[in-house]
Amino acid sequence: MNKKIILNQVGYISNQVKTAVYAGSADSFQIVDAKTGKTMFSGLLRSTVYDKASGDTVSLIDFSTFNKRGKYYIRIGLKKSLPFVISDNPYNELKKGLLKGLYYNRCGKLDRRFAGDYAHKACHSDLVPFFENPSRRIDVSGGWHDSGGYGKFSVCTSVALGHLLYAYKLFPESFAEETGIPESGNGVPDILNECRVGLEWLLKMQTRDGGIHHKVVWQIPPEPTMPDEDSSEHYIFAKSHQAAACGCAVFALASGVFAEFDKEFSSRLNEAAINAWIWLMNNPNYEPFENPPTVALNAAGDFYDDNFNDELFWAVSELYEMTGDADFHKKIGELCGIVDGTGFVNREVSGFGAIAYLFGTQPRDKNIEQMLHLRLRIKADNLYGLSQKSGYKTAKSDDDYTRGSNMYSMTDSIALILAYRIFGCEEYLDTVCEQMNYILGKNPMGICYVTGFGKVSVKNPHHRPSDADDIEEPVPGLLVCGPSKFIQDDFTQWNIPEDAAPAKCYYDVVHSYTTNEPTIYTNSAAVFVAGYLDSLSDTN
Length: 540
Description:
Oligomer: single chain
Structural class: alpha+beta
Shape: globular
Number of helices: 16
């Protein structure tokens, strides 16, 4: 690896940990004012370490004690870094950009007044047939396109909503600004305006008996095309236990959040949550959702999940917070010993249940509380330990570079944030900052994984609108999957050497859906983390 300085290209919080990496060996470094060329700070480099995940030998550049706000670059000998800022709130625009990224992924019309050059006509507005009964069609328009394609998934939408609703619920002060969407200025925070888009679609997916259909997706993926030009036939797939439980949870959660702004909508969500729970009680034998054999594997867009305890735990935790019913509290006690309690991803949602219980308003059982605290502390300690072993301070083992690795960096950061709020351990917050550093450029690829941010960022995401439009720059504010060693698409299998280091199994090309695809639930997790870090400027 050529000697170079690798850093967070967006910026550092003035009173938090600030580190970069030098791929090489040297004695000292200088922080230089980008405007005047004056050296503002000098420090010694840490001794070189071998970073196994990347195969790089690197030295840590630690300038955490330098808190002067401004725009700078790092100099080591004749080498200069990319510019960066030190600010009280360097992630304010990033937070809004990531949230606006969800707007760009809306299913429907994108107005030029709000989407600019990325505008398009209304899409996917026709009635959609049921896969098992194509003669019957219903309206499932709206919501968000899940990822690089145009499928829409109930569990994925629920997870994204969980991130967004809890970001607002736990630190609402971070979401006062408008983001430039059609609903801006209506008296409701834009993060909740965006949530309503997902919630209204999820309500359409619920049937009269309370069940929720698993997804709306094509049978065979179409060629890259703009959303309004997509003529492929989409289908509504069967109801699933996963969709019903996650929908139940997020309806209950949203009911409480929206009560302040729209009592009628809050009441609708309350009723939908209860109806979903009734469906679950009427269908007690869990059956994991599986695609029909005629559906192309790469059109599936979801996953096989043979463990239902985490979804059930989230549902009963939110229902307990919504109702205070003792039966739900009892069920929480039965489940808390067999769930992880720290997961915030599609296959593992029990962390949302832990938030509902630990940060809710209902009475808590001391034993349940202690058990959930312990799970979070073990998780946070493990992530901190991994970060300390890494030359880049990345909280990952070599085995963690799989599909969605960037998403896990963000959802692991959610667990760290919760642990920090409970235990006050500064090392947890430092580790969160380092994971954001990683996402924004302080990584072995030296790339900011969010489109439209940083000097060297993703240019060719696996994202159909970005590929099919005539605009050189991709849709901004999209966080891509990141390096994936253990799950790869055909392109990465052929083009990334088999012996490549895990943290370097990444390709910035549209063909690499395992490493370069954005998803709504990756973006939403990043909104949570960026929103929390932005809130620190208001509290310190």
